[in-house]
Write a structure and sequence with these properties.
This protein is α+β, with helices and mostly antiparallel strands. The chain has 15 helices and 11 strands. Strands 1-2-6-3-5-4 form a 6-stranded mixed beta sheet, with helices on both faces. Strands 7-11-8-10-9 form a 5-stranded mixed beta sheet, sandwiched between helices. Strand 9 and strand 10 form a beta hairpin. Helix 9 packs across helix 15, helix 11 packs across helix 15 and helix 12 runs antiparallel to helix 14. The radius of gyration is 23 Å and the shape is globular.
């Protein structure tokens, strides 16, 4: 059980405090409710670019890292389709330094043209190295637009194409910042050796004067898919690879936990159905897995794997489909479901060992509308039944709901 108190400032900033007097550190986590799904189709990759720009200096602080390091702190950040998350740890006695740093860059970036150019180059290089210049790196640049035709999940967090980052202007940057980096679009979590009264006072002092914004979001809904979609890719890769994705409900939907357990049952570890049948017994794949994307809006359940030399990709897909058909037609035994439940609950418990993870989990839970989701998830997992697994299997694993990529290896190209 993770204990916490929460309050909200007049400008809309939601604040959560998790007291843990057993540690000597304090953690500050700020979740901004903005990800790549909030970008314009012609200006993608901005949320990720901003993750980098936020470390380039703010209105009154030329260097973010230097003062934090002086008081024994460290920091990092990440961006995905739904959120941009910043976090830092430091000795609890220096917690006010964290408030000073984070409030100043929420107030305003420095908007230094040099910083924009530096971070633009960093992001472009990341795009090339991670997505364009490594085997299978571009698969999500191809699978997303195959599965999504309307919703902005159709592009990856890095963006649709490099040109969108290359052409980003300072005006684009400022517009994005002042729209999304505002108090009422953020969730602040402070955890560790702190007190609620202390954090209330510091929150009012440092964040209270920052004006709120005008939060709004009207994302297009992805139409119901009623026909299988297929794409074949040919490239210089080590082996043929197979990807099949089905639409599923979003992260905060009541069926999410059943679907997550379904994906674990299929493809988590060497005892899973896919591995036992298709890797160990029949040797159709050399590796195979399944996972859910975990996105807030309706997402994807994905099965992917590397196919053994000499096996046709069509045969590999048929082998996967046969296992899914068995799930749809037959009830999973309680023992098998219990095993993946235990795995999921263990991961959940492990994620709460470190204070920083508790802070992150609280922030994301609050995004659902109820921070106590952090304490309710274990029960939600435990309540999933074998009947639920069969029901969601039949809802999801329909051929007309699927999106398939055959990633064909062409090792003999000149």
């Amino acid at each position: 059980m993770v204990s916490f108190k929460e309050f909200e400032l007049d400008n809309g900033l939601r604040v959560i405090v998790h007291e843990d007097p057993t540690v000597q550190i304090a953690v500050m986590n700020i979740l901004y409710d903005v990800g790549s799904r909030d970008e314009h189709p012609d200006k993608t990759g901005f949320a990720h670019l901003f993750e980098h720009l936020m470390f380039g200096g703010s209105k009154n602080i030329p260097s973010y890292d230097e003062p934090l390091q002086r008081v024994g702190g460290e920091n990092n950040a990440f961006t995905n389709t739904d959120i941009t998350n910043y976090y830092l740890t430091l000795p609890a006695s220096n917690i006010e330094t964290a408030f000073w740093l984070e409030s100043d860059r929420m107030l305003s970036l420095s908007f230094d043209p040099k910083s924009l150019e530096v971070q633009r180059k960093v992001v472009i290089e990341e795009f090339k190295q991670r997505y364009l210049n490594q085997p299978y790196g571009d698969v999500w640049l191809k699978l997303r637009p195959l599965a999504y035709h309307v919703h902005p999940y159709q592009w990856a967090t890095i963006g649709k194409e490099i040109s969108h980052i290359e052409n980003a202007t300072m005006e684009d940057v400022k517009n994005f910042f002042f729209k999304y980096y505002v108090p009422d679009n953020a969730i602040l979590v402070v955890a560790g050796n702190v007190t609620v009264d202390q954090i209330k006072s510091l929150s009012e002092k440092w964040f209270g004067p920052i004006p709120g914004g005008k939060k709004s979001r009207a994302l297009p809904l992805e139409p119901h898919q009623n026909q299988k979609r297929f794409l074949e890719v040919k490239a210089k890769v080590p082996a043929n690879a197979f990807y099949k994705a089905w639409h599923m409900p979003g992260r905060f939907h009541e069926d999410y936990y059943a679907i997550d357990l379904l994906s674990d049952l299929l493809g988590r570890g060497q005892s899973s159905r896919l591995y036992q049948n298709l890797v160990k017994d029949r040797e159709i794949f050399t590796s195979v897995s399944s996972f859910v994307m975990g996105t807030i809006d309706p997402g994807l359940l994905v099965v992917s794997g590397r196919v053994k030399d000499g096996v046709a990709l069509k045969d590999a897909e048929e082998a996967v489909d046969k296992i899914l058909e068995d799930l749809r037609n037959n009830v999973v035994v309680d023992e098998e479901l219990g095993k993946v439940k235990n795995q999921a609950e263990s991961i959940l418990e492990f994620s709460e060992v470190e204070v920083i993870n508790r802070a992150m989990n609280l922030a994301f839970a609050k995004l659902s509308g109820d921070a106590n989701l952090i304490n309710a998830e274990a029960k939600k997992i435990d309540r999933v039944t074998v009947t639920d697994i069969k029901r969601v299997s039949n809802q999801i694993f329909r051929e007309e709901n699927s999106n398939v990529i055959y990633y064909q290896a062409l090792n003999n190209l000149p």
